[in-house]
Protein backbone atom coordinates (compact mmCIF):
# COMPACT_ATOMS: atom_id res chain seq x y z
CA UNK A 1 0.00 0.00 0.00
CA UNK A 2 2.79 2.40 0.87
CA UNK A 3 4.48 1.78 -2.50
CA UNK A 4 1.27 2.56 -4.38
CA UNK A 5 0.68 5.68 -2.30
CA UNK A 6 4.25 6.87 -3.00
CA UNK A 7 3.78 6.39 -6.74
CA UNK A 8 0.46 8.27 -6.67
CA UNK A 9 2.10 11.14 -4.77
CA UNK A 10 4.78 11.34 -7.48
CA UNK A 11 2.21 11.13 -10.33
CA UNK A 12 -0.80 13.20 -9.21
CA UNK A 13 -2.05 13.75 -12.77
CA UNK A 14 -2.63 9.99 -13.16
CA UNK A 15 -4.20 9.33 -9.74
CA UNK A 16 -7.86 9.22 -10.84
CA UNK A 17 -7.09 7.11 -13.90
CA UNK A 18 -5.19 4.50 -11.87
CA UNK A 19 -7.59 4.34 -8.93
CA UNK A 20 -10.69 3.95 -11.07
CA UNK A 21 -9.09 1.03 -12.96
CA UNK A 22 -7.82 -0.81 -9.89
CA UNK A 23 -10.60 -3.19 -8.74
CA UNK A 24 -8.80 -3.69 -5.44
CA UNK A 25 -8.79 0.00 -4.52
CA UNK A 26 -11.38 0.62 -1.83
CA UNK A 27 -13.71 3.62 -1.92
CA UNK A 28 -15.34 4.04 1.47
CA UNK A 29 -18.42 6.12 1.93
CA UNK A 30 -18.41 8.91 4.46
CA UNK A 31 -19.93 8.41 7.90
CA UNK A 32 -23.65 8.98 7.87
CA UNK A 33 -25.87 10.62 10.41
CA UNK A 34 -25.44 7.72 12.82
CA UNK A 35 -22.86 9.59 14.89
CA UNK A 36 -20.22 6.90 14.31
CA UNK A 37 -16.78 7.76 12.99
CA UNK A 38 -16.20 4.75 10.74
CA UNK A 39 -16.99 4.61 7.03
CA UNK A 40 -20.06 2.70 5.90
CA UNK A 41 -19.42 -0.90 4.86
CA UNK A 42 -21.23 -2.90 2.19
CA UNK A 43 -23.63 -4.17 4.87
CA UNK A 44 -24.94 -0.63 5.39
CA UNK A 45 -23.48 -0.14 8.87
CA UNK A 46 -20.50 1.93 9.96
CA UNK A 47 -17.29 -0.09 10.24
CA UNK A 48 -15.50 -0.30 13.58
CA UNK A 49 -11.71 -0.50 13.66
CA UNK A 50 -10.54 -3.85 14.95
CA UNK A 51 -14.05 -5.32 15.01
CA UNK A 52 -15.34 -5.16 11.41
CA UNK A 53 -14.18 -7.69 8.84
CA UNK A 54 -14.72 -7.89 5.08
CA UNK A 55 -15.68 -11.33 3.73
CA UNK A 56 -16.93 -12.95 0.52
CA UNK A 57 -20.56 -11.81 0.41
CA UNK A 58 -21.50 -14.81 -1.76
CA UNK A 59 -20.50 -17.18 1.06
CA UNK A 60 -21.19 -15.30 4.30
CA UNK A 61 -24.12 -13.41 5.81
CA UNK A 62 -23.73 -9.83 7.07
CA UNK A 63 -23.60 -9.67 10.84
CA UNK A 64 -22.07 -13.12 11.30
CA UNK A 65 -19.72 -13.20 14.28
CA UNK A 66 -16.31 -14.61 13.31
CA UNK A 67 -13.59 -15.57 15.76
CA UNK A 68 -10.23 -14.83 14.10
CA UNK A 69 -6.81 -15.84 15.38
CA UNK A 70 -3.28 -15.83 13.99
CA UNK A 71 0.11 -17.15 15.01
CA UNK A 72 1.47 -13.60 14.59
CA UNK A 73 0.77 -10.72 16.93
CA UNK A 74 -1.41 -8.27 15.06
CA UNK A 75 -1.81 -4.97 16.89
CA UNK A 76 -4.85 -2.93 15.92
CA UNK A 77 -3.33 0.29 17.18
CA UNK A 78 -6.00 0.65 19.86
CA UNK A 79 -4.42 -1.81 22.27
CA UNK A 80 -6.26 -4.82 20.88
CA UNK A 81 -4.65 -7.90 19.38
CA UNK A 82 -5.74 -11.20 17.89
CA UNK A 83 -7.39 -13.52 18.71
CA UNK A 84 -10.65 -11.63 18.78
CA UNK A 85 -14.28 -11.70 17.81
CA UNK A 86 -15.10 -9.68 14.70
CA UNK A 87 -18.30 -9.11 12.70
CA UNK A 88 -18.81 -9.60 8.94
CA UNK A 89 -19.81 -6.11 7.75
CA UNK A 90 -18.04 -5.49 4.45
CA UNK A 91 -16.72 -7.14 1.29
CA UNK A 92 -14.11 -6.47 -1.38
CA UNK A 93 -13.33 -7.47 -4.95
CA UNK A 94 -10.27 -9.53 -3.93
CA UNK A 95 -11.98 -11.36 -1.08
CA UNK A 96 -13.12 -14.68 -2.52
CA UNK A 97 -13.59 -17.97 -0.71
CA UNK A 98 -14.80 -19.36 2.58
CA UNK A 99 -11.79 -18.42 4.69
CA UNK A 100 -10.64 -15.11 3.23
CA UNK A 101 -11.08 -11.88 5.14
CA UNK A 102 -9.78 -8.33 5.35
CA UNK A 103 -9.62 -6.82 8.81
CA UNK A 104 -10.74 -3.19 9.04
CA UNK A 105 -7.90 -1.38 10.79
CA UNK A 106 -9.50 2.07 10.91
CA UNK A 107 -9.00 5.33 9.05
CA UNK A 108 -6.08 7.72 8.80
CA UNK A 109 -2.33 7.45 8.30
CA UNK A 110 -1.61 5.09 11.21
CA UNK A 111 -4.40 2.69 10.26
CA UNK A 112 -3.25 2.76 6.63
CA UNK A 113 0.29 1.86 7.65
CA UNK A 114 -1.00 -1.01 9.82
CA UNK A 115 -3.25 -2.35 7.07
CA UNK A 116 -0.61 -1.98 4.37
CA UNK A 117 1.80 -4.25 6.19
CA UNK A 118 -0.75 -6.92 7.09
CA UNK A 119 -0.86 -10.26 5.29
CA UNK A 120 -1.21 -13.17 7.67
CA UNK A 121 -2.43 -16.73 7.79
CA UNK A 122 -4.82 -17.43 10.60
CA UNK A 123 -7.87 -19.32 11.81
CA UNK A 124 -11.39 -18.30 10.87
CA UNK A 125 -14.29 -19.68 12.94
CA UNK A 126 -17.91 -18.75 12.16
CA UNK A 127 -20.21 -18.60 15.17
CA UNK A 128 -23.70 -19.66 14.14
CA UNK A 129 -26.81 -20.59 16.12
CA UNK A 130 -27.15 -24.34 16.56
CA UNK A 131 -30.63 -24.11 15.01
CA UNK A 132 -29.08 -22.84 11.76
CA UNK A 133 -26.32 -25.46 11.56
CA UNK A 134 -28.54 -27.96 9.74
CA UNK A 135 -29.07 -25.53 6.85
CA UNK A 136 -25.36 -25.21 6.03
Automatic annotation (TrEMBL):
SUPFAM superfamilies given in the database record: Barwin-like endoglucanases
Keywords: Cell wall biogenesis/degradation, Lyase
GO CC annotations, alphabetized: outer membrane
GO biological process, one term: cell wall organization
Span of domain 3D: 51-127
InterPro entries, per database record: 3D_dom, MltA, MltA_B, RlpA-like_sf
Protein name: peptidoglycan lytic exotransglycosylase
UniProt lineage: Bacteria, Pseudomonadati, Pseudomonadota, Alphaproteobacteria, Hyphomicrobiales
Amino acid sequence: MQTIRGWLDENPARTDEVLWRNRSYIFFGTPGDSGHDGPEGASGVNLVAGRSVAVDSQRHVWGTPIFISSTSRINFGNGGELPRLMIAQDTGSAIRGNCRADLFMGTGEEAGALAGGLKETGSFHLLIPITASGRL
